[in-house]
Amino acid sequence: MAEAWTGNAVVGQSGGPTVVINQSLVGVIEEIQKYRHIKNLLGAHHGVHGIIHEQFYDLNRQPTQMLDLVAQTPAAALGSTRDKPDQKYCERIFEVFRKRDVRYFFYIGGNDSASTARIIERVARDNHYALRVIHIPKTIDNDLLVTDHCPGYGSAARFVASAFMGDDLDNRALRGVKINILMGRDAGFITAASILARQREDDGPHLVYVPERPFSVEQFVADVAAVYERLGRCVVAVSEGIRDEKGELWAAKVSVLRQAHLEVDAHGNVQLGEGVGSLADYLAGTLRAQARNIKRVRADTYGYLQRSFPGYYSHVDAWEARLVGQMAVSYSADSEVNGSVALVRLPGTTYAVGTKLVGLSQVAPDAPPKTKSLPAEYINQAGNNIEASYREYVGPLVGDLPKIGWFEQIAEAMPTRP
Amino acid sequence: MAEAWTGNAVVGQSGGPTVVINQSLVGVIEEIQKYRHIKNLLGAHHGVHGIIHEQFYDLNRQPTQMLDLVAQTPAAALGSTRDKPDQKYCERIFEVFRKRDVRYFFYIGGNDSASTARIIERVARDNHYALRVIHIPKTIDNDLLVTDHCPGYGSAARFVASAFMGDDLDNRALRGVKINILMGRDAGFITAASILARQREDDGPHLVYVPERPFSVEQFVADVAAVYERLGRCVVAVSEGIRDEKGELWAAKVSVLRQAHLEVDAHGNVQLGEGVGSLADYLAGTLRAQARNIKRVRADTYGYLQRSFPGYYSHVDAWEARLVGQMAVSYSADSEVNGSVALVRLPGTTYAVGTKLVGLSQVAPDAPPKTKSLPAEYINQAGNNIEASYREYVGPLVGDLPKIGWFEQIAEAMPTRP
User: Fold this and answer.
1) Three-class secondary structure of residue B172 per DSSP
2) Alpha-carbon gap: B42 to the closest alpha carbon of chain A (Å)
3) How far apart are CA A371 and CA A143, in angstroms?
4) What are the DSSP E strand ranges found in B260-408?
5) What is the dihedral of CA A95, A101, A106, A112, to 10 degrees?
6) Which residues of B touch A289 (CB under 8 A)?
């Protein structure tokens, strides 16, 4: 194996923040101290945007006390971006890389960030510029290809499962229908995690709708009415990414109905968030109008809390996010190829993971599917619930959940005290 | 002092749940063991609704392990209700009370529950039925009269302050405008607590709107544009209860615009929740249309998470909620009057509280004001922010907040490693 070349490194964060993305960043910073191949580590302010504007943090000189605290802090400590570099943007990146002798580029992010990493890899190769590019996975959506799961997902899943525990208790206390709209533009992983809230047989969520199956409002109303008839209440998990039979986003349809404006980012993704609050109100309003025996209907949109709530994360997720950052540095020293760090679940009965480096073209391919969907085996036949088998996949990523207490019996007769 | 009469007791929970309302319930259950005046303790299933339907939990026989767990569990373990008893309803209540020799009635709830307690007190007196009625305060809205603050508020405030810490970090990472709609139908206490998220000078929320001041959309757009101009981003806290100059709810106005239907409960309150998701989208959409230089606008509605998120509460709040439950039993044994347990903040430099029993007519008066508003001294002149002095009031109720780390400097020049 050839010896790793020597130079400086840039690390950046990109795309939607998570509560553990800074674990990966700190993993890179601390691991570099063990090696000789990287001299100085620059933190790009707002990802590639910071590179072209030459705005960097000096990451060699941050005190360890602060690194420990940053690791536990949600969002992206370096700042993030949704910029997607084009040819001219790349020229400027390489101008800066040359000037500062940057030979290692670590980019922490999701699908779009992997794409950006791949573009930079290609431009480096075309220009015979010696650069090692390592993508470090991050996304609450859990929709990256190859990796068993994505750092950031376990914590978002833990937040959602905990939130549904509380919401289900609230719904038991004041009965009615409660609808919660959850993140997940294309994949139902976050929404599916809501089933971890179930302990008792009649615990919610009672219905779960993911983007992988077409969503029909008629079926939704019938489903909710049936649960309400049986239990006198109903808690529903709905992904913000639900689509109709033609594949059109319901959030977009509702927004058009209400003259709202959707944003489209540089990567061509519709930016949900707008229209999502209206989606909640639309579903609630439709239920009120069409299922008149239901007395109380509420709808919330969990929104950014799912990816940014501080001090509430999965310990497994935080550990793994740190690990992939550290392994990125290790791969940069030992391997002669670029790639993305993937988590591999080890076969066996007790949960354990390893990592591997996979080619960027596998994580950011040219042809669809470019992202991972919730596997069909986890969605029930009717498309309105998640199979219990999903717990085996998601449970270990989430770790401990709050303990819940309740009173078992209702006294029929007057109790007597001895 | 006359000796307390002997009989059975009913305890119930009423109104919107909180994460610590079960602390008060368990406080009642455990404290009764110390006294002889109450023989059996019945837990009314869904408040007064459970009384008239004779659905009770036997609270003398719940294992201590389960009581400890129930105390930490959000929502109302006995079930809650929004029923307001009329004459016929009361007749049925007293029929059950007579049949079961109920001589003590503990009711845990907010303003409407205090009203219910007062109705029951009056009917008992009119019928010469010996009954001691004690109201135990609970409401995340913090709008009960007399008491320094309400059990349930500190935990909701802690959730909101933590959420804004995360949301502000998220907004720093991906800059733009973020609007969060918070609970509080008439009072701005929950929304005001968002200022605890601020550590650095430029931390959000940068603007805070409460129901105590009329909300003008024109002013809102101008305020946000000014902050955005200065910082390149803006985080906004908006109460769901904001009203226009005529006192009309914005959530209702937006719902009418969008043909949604608002619910009105038995106490005559408009039940927000519906229209609130649309309010978020309406404010975001208006900003997009009128402040076109702002590139990225997002809006979330925190919703029920503020009152039901499990495992995330204020320790001070949990302790006080337990205390008021215990003191209710103590007052029932030692005092000859009915009343509501109020928290009294002891004068001095270090936060400490005591309790007192106040007449039900003081907490549920016949004439307005029937609830407490955020004192005017805490709202800034422009009506778009909360004064720093509010920290002194709210800080001790919330307790510890997550620690946040960040990188201080941006390296202008290339750093060199020794």
Assistant:
1) helix
2) 8
3) 5
4) 263-264, 270-275, 297-301, 339-345, 353-358
5) 10
6) 261
pLDDT in tens, A401-411: 999 999 976 65
Task: Report CA torsion sign: A367, A370, A376, A377.
Answer: positive
CA B312 to the chain's CA centroid? 15
B149-158 pLDDT, tens digit per residue, is 999 999 999 9
Q: What is the pTM of this model?
A: 0.94
Between CA A204 and CA A194 the distance in angstroms is 9
Cross-chain Cβ contact A305/B302 below 8 Å: yes
Q: Tell me the count of A-B CB pairs closer than 8 A.
A: 291
Instruction: Determine which one of B58, B68, B101, B141 is catalytic.
Output: B141
Partner-chain contact A178 B43, CB within 8 Å: no
Q: How far is B145 from chain A (nearest CA, A)?
A: 24
Give catalytic status of residue A141 as yes or no. yes
Mean pLDDT within A11-32: 97
- Closest Cα in chain B, distance from residue A107 (Å): 15
- For the record, the structure tokens of B384 come out as 């778009």
Residue type, B244: D
What 3-state class would DSSP assign to B297?
strand
* Residue A147 · residue A364 · CB < 8 Å: no
- Torsion, Cα of B124, B129, B131, B137 (10° steps): -10
Q: Which residues contact B116 (CB under 8 A, 6 or more apart)?
A: B14, B47, B48, B83, B84, B85, B107, B109
How many angstroms separate the CA atoms of A10 and A49, rounded? 12
Q: Is the ipTM of this complex over 0.85?
A: yes
